[in-house]
Every structure is written in structure tokens, then in C-alpha cells.
Specification:
This protein is an alpha/beta fold. It has one domain (about 5-225): Vaccinia Virus protein VP39 (Rossmann fold, 3-Layer(aba) Sandwich). About 25% of the residues lie in helices and about 20% in strands. It is built from six helices and nine strands, in the order αβαβαβαβαβββαββ. The chain is globular and about 45 Å long. The protein starts with a helix and ends with a strand. Residues about 1-20 and about 205-210 have low confidence and may be disordered.
């Protein structure tokens, strides 16, 4: 039995607030938060688990997407701020701290996984936006911009708080690209607190029939804090 299958067996039939509190997260149900039609959604139960552990008083999501994270936070009586390029906030040029007006205990983003899902000009807006991370021409360009975004998050975080991101790996043309590994290498080593493995569920690729694969299909993401 794989690790993924073992975790899935452990969580069957259990309500979300009694799930095992380890470093592997598996939530087949995304919950009632946010807009399920917005591509790339993360299960609200992932945010709920993180909030239960870190207990932030002020939470900011600078890439809020459909709003799942802030809806979960507010339901838990956490002061929450949601920002996004689609609503006029540019994380590469605008200060999170100045926009929110105070430091946050937790600044957690869920950026695009490079160009897997194009957002501006597709999910929102009529034209691609030059500072949309999903519109980066190369993986190197994506990493440079993601690094700038994470430094912005770091500046907006209290000294005893946490910042981080939810991110997945990408395989294309036989090449494997792991943004989480590169971002860990770029950020201050002594600030890394945790890496959680999140099982992916309900992916669009689940309906695609693949030819025999040399390596397994990617079915995990990371929460890097």
C-alpha cells in the first residue's frame, strides 16, 4: 500500500476536525468555501488545518483567487485580508504591508504552478497581464517572480509569525520542475519551519487517458512554511 493510499484509508469516515495531525494532508472534499468553478482551487480544509495549528490573529492571502482561504479564516473568527492581481493588487510591485495596513501573523499564498493554468485572459480579464505568474515565458522567469512575491510576503509578516506558499511540481516534455525545492533553496535556511505534503484530488488531469508512463503521475503538492 502506498503512502497516499494509507493516508486515504486513515481519513475515511472521519470528520475534518478529527483528521490525523501529521505532515501529510488529504482532503477529497474541498468544502463549501470559495468558488469551485475557479480552476486551481485548494480545499478549504487545508487552510482550516493550518489555521488550527498556527492560530493566526491576522491572516493575509495575497493571491486569494476565488476567496477560499479568507472565507475559512473569517468563519474561524480570524481577521482576514484577501488580495489578488484580478482585483488590482500586484504582488510584484505593490506592498502587502502597505495595502493591509498592519503586519500579519500568517501570509500564505497559493500561486500558479507556472503556466499549467493560465489565469489572466482566461479565468479572469480579457487580456494576459504582464505580471501574472501564470504567464511567465520560462521556468526561470517564473522562479524570479515567485521569489520577489515571497519576499513581499516575508516583509508583511510579524517576527514571530509565518509566511509561505502552497505549490505543486510540474512535469512537461519529460522534464521535472520543482518550484518548492528551488524556493526553499533561495529563502533564508534558518526560517524554514515545515513542509507539508498535500494529496491532490479532483484534478482535471484525472479524466485524461495517458499512454504508459515511465514515472508516476504527480498527485501531490506542498505547503511550505
Amino acid at each position: 500500500m502506498s503512502v497516499y493510499d494509507a493516508v486515504t484509508e486513515r481519513v475515511k469516515g472521519l470528520p475534518p476536525n478529527t483528521l490525523p495531525h501529521g505532515s501529510i494532508l488529504s482532503f477529497p472534499d474541498r468544502g463549501p468555501w470559495g468558488n469551485s468553478r475557479y480552476r486551481g482551487n485548494c480545499s478549504g480544509y487545508v487552510y482550516k488545518r493550518i489555521f488550527e495549528h498556527l492560530r493566526p490573529r491576522v491572516f493575509t492571502d495575497p493571491m486569494v483567487g476565488s476567496g477560499t482561504s479568507v472565507e475559512v479564516a473569517r468563519e474561524m473568527d480570524i481577521e482576514a485580508h484577501g488580495l489578488d492581481l484580478h482585483s488590482g493588487f500586484n504582488i510584484l510591485k505593490d506592498s502587502i504591508l502597505e495595502r493591509v495596513g498592519k503586519l500579519s501573523d500568517l501570509v500564505l499564498s497559493h500561486p500558479p504552478y507556472h503556466d499549467i493554468i493560465p489565469y489572466s485572459g482566461s479565468e479572469w480579464g480579457r487580456e494576459p497581464h504582464a505580471d501574472d505568474l501564470s504567464r511567465c515565458a520560462t521556468a526561470d522567469q517564473f522562479m524570479d517572480k515567485l521569489y520577489i512575491a515571497l519576499l513581499n510576503q516575508r516583509t508583511a509578516t510579524m517576527v514571530d509569525g509565518h509566511y509561505g506558499l502552497i505549490i505543486g511540481d510540474v512535469r512537461r516534455g519529460g522534464r521535472y520542475f520543482s518550484p518548492q525545492a528551488e524556493i526553499i533553496a533561495r529563502m533564508p535556511r534558518d526560517e524554514l519551519r515545515s513542509v507539508l505534503i498535500k494529496a491532490q484530488h479532483n484534478m482535471a488531469s484525472n479524466s485524461v487517458r495517458y499512454a504508459p508512463m515511465k514515472f508516476p503521475k504527480i498527485e501531490h503538492e506542498y505547503v511550505v512554511l
